[in-house]
Known about the structure:
Chain A is mainly β. Chain A has an eight-stranded antiparallel β-barrel with strand order 23-24-27-28-30-29-26-25. Chain B is of the alpha+beta class and 125 residues long. In chain B, 18% of the residues lie in helices and 42% in strands. Chain B has an eight-stranded antiparallel barrel with strand order 1-2-3-4-5-6-7-8. The longest helix of chain B has 22 residues, at 2-23.
Amino acid sequence: MARGLKILALLFTVLIFTSIFTIGIITWWVFTPEKITPVIREQAAKHLNCSTSIGRVELTFFSTFPDFAFKINELQLLTLAGAAPNDTLLDVGEAVLRFDLMKLWNHAELNIHEITLKHGKLNLFTDSLGVVNYNIWQPADPANEEDESFSLELINAENIILQQIDLRYEDASLGVKAIVENLHAEVHGSLKQGILHSVLKVAEASVSLDYQQEEYLSHTPTKFQLLSSYDFNQQHLRITAANLQLNEVSFTMHGDLDLSSEAKGAGLQYELPEISAESLLKLVPPAFASFVEDLDFAGDVYFKGSLEGEYSNEKWPWIRTDLRLRNGRINHAILPFPLDHAEASISITTDFFNDTSSFIHIESASAVHKNSRFQVSGNVKDIYSDALLELRIATGLDLDEITEYFPKDLKLTASGTMDGNLQTTFRLSELEKNQWEKFRVRGNFYGKALRMANDSLEMRCLDTEVRLQMPNPKPALPQRKFALVNMKSGLFALDEWKKPRLTLQNALLHLETSDLRDTIVVPHMYLSYGLDSLGISLDTLIYQGENPTGTLTISPCRQSPHLPSIEAGYASDKVTARYGMITADLKKTNLSVKVNRDDRFQDAFKQWMFEGFVHVIEGYFQSPDFRYSFELPVLSMDFEPETFNIKESHAKIGSSDFSLAGSFQNVMSYFREDSILRGTFIFQSDTTDVFQLMNLTSGLGHDDPPEDENQGPYMVPQGLDISLQTNIGYARMGHNFADHIGGVLRVRDGTLVLDDIQLETPAARMELTAMYRTPRKNHLFLGLDYRMVDVEIEELLEMIPDIDTLMPMLRSFKGTGEFHIAVETYLDSMYNIKKSTLRGASSITGQNLVLMDGETFGEIAKTLRFNKKTENIVDSLSTEFTIFREEIDIYPFLMVMDRYKAVIAGRHNFDLTFDYHVSVVESPLPFRLGVDIRGDIDNLSYSLARARYAEFYRPTRRGVVENRQLELRRMIREALMGTTRTASE
Amino acid sequence: MVKTILRLTFLLLTSTALLFFFGSCEMEEDVFSDSTLLIGKWKSGTLYYKYQNNGHGATWDTSDDVTEKEAQDFTWTLQKSVLTHIHVLEMGGTVPKVYKVTQLTHSNLRYEDDFGKKFSFTKVD
């Protein structure tokens, strides 16, 4: 056995050496380069339609063992096909062509199964018409086919090896330009039963790629491996494994491609194993580098996807890509702050054409910045037309961290947290055009211990929840569908320079609104609110309200849509307000107001027209301008631009308490100076201090109202026409008072009229009609029609001392009479009578008056021999007199006493001098007697005179006062109708 | 008694004689028929009267801080020597004042009332 083996080994060795020897002879002495090179050149020229430059060709075996090969030095292929930028197709230092020796020996067929190119360059070019420069094979000539003694088959090359080759490929029709430098690649393949199994391996290359003149790769280190099989019959490519490595980024792929013209389809799976984001950024084409040059992007990125479906020139297969980012960090100029711990899981599905089959699904994308977090999920649809974004955004902001990224010039500081959840749907074009009205947003925001401040302002917000919906799902009006906002806040405070300006406690706000961005168009807005307390402090205004609730509605005015119409409702429990030195305390307040703007007026105040109602319970007001306390137990008033209707009111001002009901008319016209202010009221009062109320109204409407209502005369308000139907139980006027006063008080444009006022005093029942007009401070008109019935003359003189001046004889009487005076005069600013303007008439009547001066009476009674010696009774007295300046003319009147009747007339002067005449018309004497009395009270002179008046005389002037009273009242009415002449006329 | 009757008789006769005496002593009145002399503004100290030819007039006293524009109206008539002022009050009604004119020229006006009070004016325009 061992011998046999030795023999066999010996034979094998001999065979080997013989073969080597034979091969050596063939390669070194038979097929020398000098013999082969011409043959190769001849065959090249025969089979190639390009110029060739072939250096030296040698047959090798040992270096290419176990194959024979032609080793060609300095191989060049030159062609001018198409519009190639140069004529060199191939230029290599060495080309090695391995071939099948047996086929060459038996069939004269050069079957090259491996090609190796080294140290050179390969230029491939396709011009804009699709003409290529690498179609160098001569077409087969059937006529010469039988004579062909030698054929060249490169298609069967199973291996192609490129070493240190610079490959340049340019396709002018596609705009593609690729340069592969220092290419080391191998292609191995085998064709079996119509299926080409191949392996492509690019071990090393530096790739540059331009597409449409945009640079996508620049000297990018590249590796590539492809394991595939191609079925020529089915035209089906199966990529068993493909791995492309650009820089440090590696892509893998596997799957199938149908390449038949009838049904092209793809079913590829690709994956980018987890790599760093920095590596991925290096693949960003230089053309787009500017977009990411400020991007700081780190993290682990992972791609995985598939390419599936039919495709054609008009149709692309679906591509689905799943993108994942882990532990990322992102910072860019457009971001206000860097984001850390970025996590994302995003899938992209697209066919590159159709919106219906293309979308992006963001399963989750999140990041944090210190203690702040952000999370987004959702879908992006219609990505090839107008992208539709359906996003869910969740945030958790730590404002203290974010503050440092605010613009420094704002000098803004903030603290607290704001968590939010937002669902939104919008299109990209809507975002670009700021078409927020088309957004669909639903979000909740929760703020805790929020605080924002700058130099002057500080806003604090504790436990605040805001809910936002766009559009408003249930708008009360279609115009308010833009947004719905509900806010709940535990505490909201706004301070300015450390001083509280606005404070809301436990506020609930509900807001429906139209788009507020267009400041030219009047918005539609509805706001309702409710708070535990509201505090406002603005300049000199301080307001504090408990449990305020209300609404605010803003909409365009119907008649003038460019102007706003505002409706506001406000109700509050206890209110404490202060404006300057004016303070108000209200137990309950209910206010509703509708405001319209009329821009026909220049004055801002006059542009606004109000209507609504106000209801106040237990109001208390104080002001340094109020000399008296002001309480308002009840006020219920409706108001509209022209009418203020006081339905119910009770007031306590100083010593007065009263209720007032009625209405003001022409209110807006009054403020627009188109009309005077009219009003009709019922004034009921238990107690009224007349002077106090007069002080409050003195000077209203005057150009120079008194600075102090306690100084100067009472100036009747101007521009007013106010009528008060009064019913006063007790009225006080200085030290005087009266009971049960009833009548009409009317103020009309500087004129005050008391019309038929009924009042009672301890001294008398009185009827008063009076007019008081104040054309100027030192010229005040006073007209009186004053009737006192059952007046005690003593009390009358005490009440009106001036009567003693007019009728000094009254001092001698005691008892009850009737006094009636109608008088008018002008007064100076101290209410002194301007005597030159005094005119008037008066009557005094009395029955059974007692003569007061007992000594005088006794002397008279003794002289005249009265029967009633112990009684000094005047049976009747009836006198009338007129007043003109300082002259009082006593018209003849009849006085009856005991058995005497006398007619008395004369003149009495303000200087207390008088000139009287007494005619005794009935006496025990048988003749009539006349006496003239002249002088003053201290120096009387008596003289007998002819009796001027006959017995049974009836004063001819009787009735003057009555006539005058009638005329006075007529003139008062005319004055109120605006027909009274003014002093200036 | 007789003495008393004689005294009374003497007194009655004396009185009758006085009545006849006073009754027969009425003076003849002056006649100032040219009332146009009255038209114009008359002044007496600070007191002013203004007569218009339509029978209206006005009066004011500047010592009481009353201007001509604020004057109070009256109507007037002059019949023979009787000058009657009917003062028209702003609130209506009138106060009559009757005077006897004693002089009326282009520059002077004098009158007096029943109580002997005299008034003297000079014309100011």
